[in-house]
Amino acid sequence: MTVHTLIIRTAGTNCDEETRFAFEQAGSEVILLHINRVIENPTVLDRAQILALPGGFSYGDDIAAGRIHANELRTKLGDRLEQFVDDGKLVIGICNGFQILAKTGLLPGPFAPDAEQTVTLTHNNSNQFEDRWVHLRADSDKSPFVRKGQTLYLPVAHGEGKFVARDRRTLDDLKGNGQVVLRYVDSDGNTGAGYPANPNGSADDIAGICDVTGRVLGLMPHPERHILPTQHPRWTREGPADVGDGLQMFRNAVDYFA
Amino acid sequence: MIWQIEVALKEGLTDPEGEAVKHEANEIGIRGIDRVRHVRVYAIESDMSAAEAERVAAELLADPVVDRYAVGGPVLGDGQDGGRVVQVVRKPGVMDPVEASSLKGIADMGLRASAVRTARKYHFYGSLTDEDARRIGDEVLANDIIEETVIGGGELAIPHAEEAPFEKVTVPLLEADDEEMMRISREGVLSLNLEEMRAIRDYYRDLGRDPIDVELETLAQTWSEHCVHKTFRGIINYNGEIIDNLLKQTVMRVTRELDRPWCLSVFKDNSGVIEFDERWGIAFKVETHNHPSALEPYGGAGTGIGGVIRDPMGTGLGAKPIMNTDVFCFGPPDLPDDRLPPGSMHPRRIMRGVVAGVRDYGNRMGIPTANGAVFFDEQYTGNCLVYCGNLARIPADKVEKAARPGDRVVVVGGRTGRDGIHGATFSSVELHEETSSSHVQIGDAITEKKMLSVLLEARDRGLYSCITDCGAGGLSSAVGEMGAETGAEVDLDTVPLKYQGLAYWEIWVSEAQERMVLAVPPEHEDELHALCRSEDVESTTIGRYTDTGRLVLRYKGEQVCDLDMDFLHDGVPRLERKAVWEGPTTTEPELPARREYGDELKQILGAWNVCSKEWIIRQYDHEVQGSSVLKPLVGAANDGPGDAAIITPVLGSTRGIVVSNGMNPKYGRIDPYHMAASAIDEALRNIVAVGGTLDRAALLDNFAWGNPDKPDRLGGLVRAARACYDVAVEYGTPFISGKDSLNNEYQVDGDSIPIPPSLLISAVAIMPDVTRAVSMGLKAPGNAIYAVGLTRDELGGSHYYELHGELGRNVPQVDTELGRSVFDALARATTDRLVRACHDCSEGGLAVAAAEMAFAGGLGMRLDLAAVPSSEDARADAVLLFSESNSRFVVEVEPGRADDFEAAMGDVPFARVGSVTEGAALEVTGLAGEVVIDEPIADLKEAWQAPLRW
Predict the structure, then answer these.
(1) B366: which chain A residues are within 8 Å (Cβ-Cβ)?
(2) CATH 3.90.650.10 is right for the domain spanning B774-950
(3) Do residue B536 and residue A11 have CB atoms under 8 angstroms apart?
């Protein structure tokens, strides 16, 4: 069966083209639509198995990263998004997409249009935008996008990527439920390495989480920027790999429906 | 009513913004602050209820996880428990993108508000005097050109502009004498000289009427140095020799003589275009935004990058931006306060603001900033340089355009406000201590980003016949240029405004950002407006192109301008200027030879111009769009200095482009001719260093100079332009676009301080197969190290001399025959995959290149100076180590490839000079056989990284 991915863009979305490329390389058909088209005709969601919110600076990240777009999705499409997840489909939010998913309450869920927000992504401890490559380790099998124990080398590029939970219990629940999917580690695979392995000061080195169903994933690093071997920062010294580390995540998502 | 809402981070969380302010306060010598907390203030004009205001605060403005908020009062308390409070608010009319976004958020919640205004508030805890608070306000938090600082905070008002009464103003020019005409020019910031004023007066005498103010403004904008390059295109008496149009005689002549078929559009559009492949072209443009950046670094630099992005967007029928470059020149960050000219900001603050401005605009646009450079020199203190560049991808069959009579004049994007009035003419004015004003603005990247999306769609649907950006001179320039061959009429009252109160001439010349002007055939008008509307982009028909050859403006039904397009575009009198060049006046110093150069190497590595720029590079997203192949930071730890950027404009293809730059203002102090020649050589050798070739390489020139009315400044400019011709034509690399920024001088105590003569050369080359890219870090122990190229006794303008307080005279020269053969030989070797690492020798010479390769690769290197190919006069350790001779490289080759590599080098000067070692040291043996450098690479790297580890 052909898997369809819907990518939603709006004012300030930047990574839509490379996210489209990543899903296409993984074998998915891609529909890339402006948010206004989706609000006008929400049935486009019915035709997609995967929904992707790409990186960028939606509405300039004014007020706070992803806030305006999250508010828009929640108020205009909240029921539809809830239905999308209930239908057993997949959602991925990358970077700004993660910030948006957290601020709509889709992450960590359970989602309802009036759900309270319990986690957030806030300003990096360095107080500045940083572009650097990080090592990641998958700590859970709950999300179909990754396999537990898998390691990934991907870039981050953000100013507001510090993961914070409302309280200790929220954090413990996430870990207990296997919702902590990706953590920042050092080159030997260890957590607790501090800056710059953890580039933003995220609690418990958390780089990505999924919702209670496992079908909604948000992560700060950019898997769509490591599809091609020449995107690796050291391919000229280590030699080009067959494919980039990020591609497997998109393949896993497409295979989920195969 | 107005609801005031304050938001702050919850107690117990790190406040990164507050910490940054504390750090910067410390930098200006204010101690005793324990803690700073940052508060975001929103004033919302709305008839919503208190419960609704509470909802807006809780659900939209505050983050429930990390923030606390207060409606109608201070969130952190006042007086003693709130610490000392400083509030910063933008002056009325200064762009604040958050206002529009907040209104959208409120509307999405089903509520209504008529206006939003924001402010920043800082609570300082610890011991802080009133004077300290004022200084922090002035020197850290706010810029009084665009912001007001209130000690103690207070209610945030929302001002509303009044409509301006319409009064058509004519300027009495017909009877004016010379003195009166110059008064009119000066007081109106027209920057027109006497001859130009006379030409205008004569034109109106023929018409038998006085000019209307907006007509005079239009002429001033169109005739500005910024728009017509009067100096470069004028007549120059150079040491008695008459040069008619320096631009045509030098830079443009290269392109004409080389006549490359892959140059698709040169020197006629908003950027130059070369062919990438059968389907695509690559557009490239670099501009400066110096004076606005000196006054308001953040806004000036942001609008600088925003403006240059619109150049390719307005080239042909529109290009898609794919990469940014930026090159900055500042005063030294450690300049003692007592050397700061009055009225200038400290270079450290300018640098922080400029970097943040480029970062916030470029990152928000989703364009990778993958190449750049920074230069420091005390003479840039009062007049920094901010070069911003953009490359873009354009369909090869869409590089031509023309407005046709009957087409509608459509303005798209941002609204027009009273910002940036007189930018074009202002750039011809030298900066003074009291220069200030509405010449600076704040950009809004998201307005530009969403405009870009719809314009690319409109281009592909064929909805318009011509497009250009609204840059310097605003609508006046854009419509004037597009209608130059046809004629145009515009109804100024249809132009959408940010607020009321603009006079008709202000609407016409405002340089408000994020606007493009289109020529839209009437049959596509509705579809274009519908497309824009569908993505929340504003578009408005404001007039039409005619066949009258006249520029006609109307306001409130009355005609306010009727100018002959021919006079507007061809009536400017040619400028005649004197230029003098008397040869280099400096001398060579005699420095004693030393036994050991390790300390000097470390000092040069730590010099501002050489040290790591990682602090800047990482703040830019250099990987968005997924196109990066060779990143600005390379090496074993991703932190070595790459020579050039390689990107793939078509994702998934291995066909790429290489982008580099060359510049060295220090050489210009000795002789601008050799400075220019060296800049071209450097830009091209950076391309070759990463595996590119000169087969399809093109250049951009950006001259930033002092006042061309002064013959010595202009003499240097002539020298530099002539070098551009001599070197580029021999290297076979055409210029495709360029720009000049003159009058970069700063008045202090009656003296005029010019910037050093500064020529930035930017280069782009097509790379057929990016998998042949080479990076500069050492790769493996046991590999051979080669020096390629010839080292001469050329320490003039070098870092080595600077270290000893000298300038010297033997400035590096370019031997184009030698350089060309070196470049071609190395390109053969990289194309055949014979090279493991390569780095060009530039600032700091061979020693710095070797050190950088070693610590970037995390490996040691052994070098023997006796083996380095050199001229006879260069046989001294210091010269071989630190001379900055052009066309040289250090190359790493696997032993098994050494024979092939040597064969590829042919008869160019090259030699095996050492090897990569397991050890962790750079070990250099001098001519006498003694070790002259033996330094751990960790120490070298630390020296290089420490200065800008901010």
Answers:
(1) 13-15, 56-57
(2) yes
(3) yes
